[in-house]
Amino acid sequence: MGEPVFKRILLKLSGESLMGSRDYGTDPERIRAVAHAIKDVHDMGVEIAIVVGAGNIYRGMKGAAAGMDRATADYMGMLATVLNALPLQDALEKCGVHTRVQSAITVAEVAEPYIRRRAMRHLEKGRVVIFAAGTGNPFFTTDTAAALRAVEVHAEAILMAKNGVEGVYTGDPREDPEAMMIPELTHMEALQRGLRVMDATALTLCMENGLPIHVFNMDDEHNIQRIVSGERVGTLVKAET
């Protein structure tokens, strides 16, 4: 791998990328593989912030959440991201990577509160920072949390890890066999075409701040290192020139 082209990145991990072949929950082997991939990039001298989703846990709670007030269900999802952040922190520290979890919801016994300046100081000291509990507000997704935190800590790019797809497609590749992958497009094109890069709020925030998004398949953990080394992997969503 070549020299890193980014000094600081934000990695958005979907909950599904941590569950391996399970129907829901976390797969310890999968988490260890992801942790080793993050360590490889960290060893290159790249500062890494992570936002975790909760689709792997929330998928198992959908029945319980059916008919529930939206805000209550969203808070359940935020707490579920903490359940993903902690095993990822444990796996990273077992690899020898100093890691801090910062939560947007107060869970003082297991995570620091989110404080922007403290997060940036951790990154400067070479610690990996995992942002849990989304933005701390209902009605906002972890995609929006990833865009917001990336802008706040001055990340140079968002690496958007997908589960089982190589990047952004013209349609849903699981349903449309003729859907084609798009190697490169702008934020505005993604919004206008309604493509599933991330939700519109998050995408607009990235567009307004000129923040590039690399969408890639997390099934191959080495893709993170390839992107950081300057290789073109998956889809690049960039600002208009």
What can you tell me about this protein's structure?
This protein has a single domain (8-238), classed as Carbamate kinase, CATH 3.40.1160.10. Helices cover 39% and strands 19% of the residues. It has helices at 28-42, 55-65, 70-94, 116-124, 142-152, 187-193, 200-208, 223-228, and strands spanning 8-13, 47-52, 99-103, 112-113, 128-132, 157-162, 168-169, 181-182, 184-186, 213-217, 235-238. Helix 2 (55-65) packs antiparallel against helix 3 and helix 5 (142-152) packs parallel to helix 7. It is globular, with a radius of gyration of 17 Å. It starts with 7 loop residues before the first strand and ends with a strand.
- Provide the structure class: alpha/beta
> How many structurally independent domains?
1
**Rg of Cα set:** 17 Å
Low-confidence segments: none
**CATH homolog superfamily:** Acetylglutamate kinase-like
CATH structural architecture: 3-Layer(aba) Sandwich
Q: What distance separates the N and C termini?
A: 28 Å
Give the total of beta strands.
11
CATH class: Alpha Beta
Biggest pleated-sheet summary = 9 strands, mixed
In CATH, the topology is named Carbamate kinase
Could you give the order of the helices and strands?
EHEHHEEHEHEEEEHHEHE
Count up the helices: 8
Shape: globular
Share of helix, binned: 25-40%
How much beta, percentage-wise? Answer: 15-25%
